[in-house]
Amino acid sequence: MKGKILVVKHTESEDAGSLGEYLKRMGWNIHTVELSKGEKLPNSFKDISACIMMGGPMNVYEEDKYPFLKDEYFFIKDILKKEIPFLGVCLGAQLLAKSCEAKIKKSPVKEIGWYNVNLTIDGKEDILFKGLSDKINVFQWHEDTFDLPKRGILLARSSPFINQAFKIGENAYGLQFHIEITPELIRDWLRSVKDINIKKKNY
Q1: What average pLDDT does the segment 168-180 reach?
Q2: Mean pLDDT in residue range 79-103
Q3: Residues 69, 70, 72, 76: is their CA dihedral positive or negative?
Q4: Averaged pLDDT of the chain
Q5: In terms of pTM, does the model score above 0.85?
Q6: 18 located within any domain
Q7: Is residue 9 part of a domain?
Q8: Does the annotation mark 90 as catalytic?
Q9: Active-site position among 14, 72, 111, 180
Q10: pLDDT at position 10, please?
């Protein structure tokens, strides 16, 4: 068995999905913290090889309503200082941006469904995306966006959401889109909303 990967969940229905299944098959030990159930972030990074921070329906600026968001702000700062590999997905990406003092703001429109994003020159060469086509089709579900942190490297962009994927240092990534998505996750999310227009994938 390989080392431990910490998965931070903000709500029961947003887990590591296909990403978690892949990591388990590769022999990684997955340790999940469910913040919505009152579980706490670890006080130590001992035995943690990497951290994946998932999405959620809350906004990063709702710290009064969700106090754990403030804890995550400092938690990510410590991760960056210790150079522990980090992946933030959707809300997790916005939390990474905020921890790097970037502005988080309401999007001009909501993105829900399958959309194309374009890799930047840096994105095409980065180990996370290298070998993929310049344009990739990804699943989106968000109403907020963020500015690129000052020390961030933009890896993927789209219109009207310029900042779709970015990198901090050598091993911290933020993805606005959901690479972990599965049909089961989509069905769970759809059950929680009504009167929603979703952009479907063209196969």
Answers
A1: 96
A2: 97
A3: positive
A4: 91
A5: yes
A6: yes
A7: yes
A8: yes
A9: 180
A10: 96
> Which residue, 149, 150, 116, is CA-closest to 134?
116
Within a domain: 161: yes
Token pair for 145? 């966006």
Does residue 10 have an active-site annotation?
A: no
3-state helix/strand/coil string of 8-70: EECCCCCCCHHHHHHHHHCCCEEEEEEHHHCCCCCCCCCCEEEEEECCCCCCCCCCCCCCHHH
Based on the structure, what is the number of domains in the chain? 1
Residue type, 164: Q
Q: What digits encode the pLDDT tens for the residues 98-155?
A: 999 999 998 888 899 999 999 999 999 999 999 999 999 999 999 899 999 999 999 9
Which domain, by its residues, includes 152? 4-191
Q: Decide if 159 contacts 111 (C-beta within 8 A).
A: no
Q: Is the pLDDT of residue 46 over 80?
A: yes
Please indicate whether residue 14 is annotated as part of the active site.
no
Domain CATH number, residue 154: 3.40.50.880
Q: Which residue among 14, 51, 72, 90 is the active-site one?
A: 90
